[in-house]
Amino acid sequence: MSEKTQLYLNGVSRSFDGFKAINNLSLIIERGEMRAVIGPNGAGKTTMMDIITGKTRPDTGEVIWGEDTDLTKVDEAGSARLGIGRKFQKPTVFETHTVEDNLHLSLKADRSVFGTLFHRTTDAERARVDELLDLVRLTAQRDDLAGDLSHGQKQWLEIGMLLAQDPELLLVDEPAAGMTDAETMRTAELLRDIAGKHSVVVVEHDMEFVRALGCKVTVLHQGAVLADGSLDHVSANPEVIETYLGR
Amino acid sequence: MSLTKLIDRRMGIFLGLLFLVTVCVPLGNLVMSPDSALHVPSFAVALMGKYLCYALLAVALDLVWGYCGILSLGHGAFFALGGYAMGMHLMREIGDRGVYANPDLPDFMVFLNWDRLPWFWHGFDMFWFAAIMALVVPGLLAFVFGWFAFRSRVTGVYLSIITQAMTYALMLAFFRNEMGFGGNNGLTDFKDVLGFDLQSDATRVGLFVCSALALAGGLLLSKWITASKLGKVLVSIRDAESRTRFLGYRVEGYKLFVFVVSAMLAGLAGALYTPQVGIINPGEFSPANSIEIVIWVALGGRGTLVGAALGAIIVALSKTLLTGWIPEIWLFALGAMFILVTLYLPKGVLGFIEASRDRLRPKAKAAPVKEAEA
Ligand SMILES: Nc1ncnc2c1ncn2[C@@H]1O[C@H](COP(=O)(O)OP(=O)(O)OP(=O)(O)O)[C@@H](O)[C@H]1O
Ligand SMILES: [Mg+2]
């Protein structure tokens, strides 16, 4: 496998009660690459992320991280510790913590029980949180409870939490859902900035958003790759048109 | 973390009141003459000592339930185990002053025709050993139980049910004479502790003061834990467990830690309880007892520590007053209190007190401008 490979899925399948949610899926994400994954509802996009992060085990197939780490043997916390950050389809932040605490809890740090018990917030951490607040435009809301944020703001906070982890790969599931057009464009901009330093996989339905990302697109259908290439290339693909229109 | 940060307003007021009571009750009992209006009778000292043990037990439950969402319906078991550990020491302290005057064997063993002490009774002749066991045994049980339950990701109602099953199983086990813990009757007829006569006023006052110190210590320890970064992780687990995992926190480790600490606090409460009530029996393991602890915490104010302690004291006091007056209605009254609080005081008595105070004296700071968007 090439030095540049960050994530490698090979022949991965997973069924639920006989229904093949993921069907012989293969995919390579390179270091620093940004990739958009599109596909109709139920195509298996979220399940793919579940498999990468150890939430769901594949029935067959390989999931390799970097050189040779087998992700099928790792749990959710383990995948996070390896450097995989995940944003959920439904925004999930810690509603009873302040915005600021949400970020502090996400910062890359010792995750052991006693390390956390005796943790003292450093100036470097405070500075990083300030930076992140600024980046996701939540500085004014830093002392508010995360539960009081608007839907779009929660999405951003979750993206901020992802960045706080400083992961090597970000899995971002429908980040633009529930955002205004301006917010959507701003999110695309944010993700473009992140790519390069980090690998990013974005699942999204909003084609305007995918276009704004300006990256390679993979079309998932019935748990397998239907097509990939540039957005224009895949949208011209008759099979892709068929699956989107034929529903 | 500095002490001033641990003692916020709520904690400060509670500890202040506790301190006042801890000074006044001993004075009222030992110094005031029995005909004085300020005299505190000895039975009341023991009773209040018992309430303080309950309060510590409630704080222990609040730590796991209020902050980490683990609704344990078996905390009475940890309390009872602590109580039994101390009871075993007190039994050994009786020595040859028992009915059968056997210097080594407690009466019930002589009665069962046992000729020697079971292995697990060894060491309990030493106070320090019993004191350590009162913490270690509940802690160990919590560790083993939590290890399996949390790793298998048993949560919610299922976890509550198995904690309840745990205390029920222990109750049945402790009822059996062959277990070697006095069966039905439990352990009782204690004479003294560390050479102090358990019937004397001074000893009762001493135990009362120890209970107050243990409660204050338990509150501060719990506050320290919940105010740390770990405490924030606990709340994160309570509110969004899966999110917490995806941030790289091994949730089971955190749950195990707080469950064990909580069990040890419950054990400490039990160890102080036994000498003050003079008996420990398998009834302490009964599922109903564990459920009552949950009611204390809910009634006082879940997730506030101080509220939990307050809830335990309010309920225990009402129980004493009501059962003295019309015993039949106690369970109905408890049920009614619980229902009223859940319906009308969702944040418990403490939440109600604090909200009323804020309404009477509105803060100078303007209300948050959240309404603007709505
Ligand atoms: N844990 C599960 N148990 C049973 N079925 C599941 C499970 N997870 C996913 N599925 C099924 O697998 C299929 C793929 O679901 P998935 O959530 O991955 O789709 P998706 O591409 O993310 O769709 P959407 O765009 O609606 O989010 C669906 O039919 C779903 O019902
Ligand atoms: Mg999905």
Give the topology.
The complex is a heterodimer of chains A (247) and B (374).
Chain A (H helix, E strand, L loop, with lengths): L4 E12 L2 E12 L3 E5 L6 H8 L7 E6 L3 E2 L5 H7 L1 E4 L11 H8 L6 H5 L5 H13 L15 H14 L4 E5 L7 H14 L4 E5 L3 H7 L2 E6 L2 E6 L1 H5 L2 H8 L2
Parallel strand pairs in A: 3-8, 3-9, 6-7, 7-8
Antiparallel strand pairs in A: 1-2, 1-4, 4-5, 9-10
Helix pairs in contact in A: 3-6, 5-6, 7-8
Chain B lengths: L2 H4 L2 H22 L11 H27 L6 H20 L12 H5 L15 H25 L4 H20 L11 E2 L3 E2 L2 E2 L3 H27 L1 H18 L4 H27 L1 E2 L6 H14 L5 H20 L4 H15 L3 H13 L14
Antiparallel strand pairs in B: 1-4, 2-3
Helix pairs in contact in B: 2-8, 3-8, 3-10, 3-11, 3-12, 4-6, 4-10, 6-10, 8-9, 8-10, 9-10, 11-12, 11-14, 12-14
Bound molecules: adenosine-5'-triphosphate (ATP) and magnesium ion (MG).
List keywords for this structure.
heterodimer; A: 247 residues; alpha/beta; Rossmann fold; six-stranded mixed beta sheet; 10 strands; 36% helix; globular; B: 374 residues; mainly alpha; two-stranded antiparallel sheet; two-stranded antiparallel ribbon; binds adenosine-5'-triphosphate; binds magnesium ion; ABC_transp_permease (chain B); branched-chain amino acid transmembrane transporter activity (chain B)
